[in-house]
Amino acid sequence: MELILALAIGVLTASGVWLLLRPRTFQVIIGLSILSYAVNLLLFAVGQLKADAVPVIEEGVVLAVTEYADPVPQALVLTAIVIGFAMTALFLVVLMASRGLTGTDHVDGREDSSL
Question: Could you give all domains of the chain from N- to C-terminal order, each with its CATH number?
Fold first, then answer.
């Protein structure tokens, strides 16, 4: 399972970086979104999710610290999802404004006739 998760993170990261290097603005935005998904999976993998672990400390029950589920990775990923959504919305607004002002969606603002 670890190999599949590592491959998924690697493929998402490579795809995101490849799209970030493309000349069109929309491809850059999609690349940033894919890269943020890769980071979310990485945070989950580093957090070592536990099955059948107690999520909340109960009064009167004494358990070792290692028997509790760690809520920090889930909180980090939820925060990253919200920030990623806001970032994507902002980039789409900037993309639409740039397209309206320049008439093209290239990152540098001009069409390359040699491609």
Answer: 2-49+66-102 (1.10.287)
CA distances from 41 to 11, 52, 76, 106, 115 (A): 12, 20, 11, 30, 35
pTM here is 0.76
Q: Tell me the two tokens of residue 2.
A: 């670890």
Residue with tokens 């890769």: 38
Mean pLDDT, range 33-44, rounded to an integer = 92
Residue 47: both structure tokens together? 């957090």
Widest Cα–Cα separation across the chain: 73
- Report the alpha-carbon distance of residue 23 to residue 21 in Å, rounded: 7
Rounded CA gap, 53 and 89, in Å? 36
Cα end-to-end span (Å), the chain = 42
In the predicted model, what is the mean pLDDT of the chain? 85
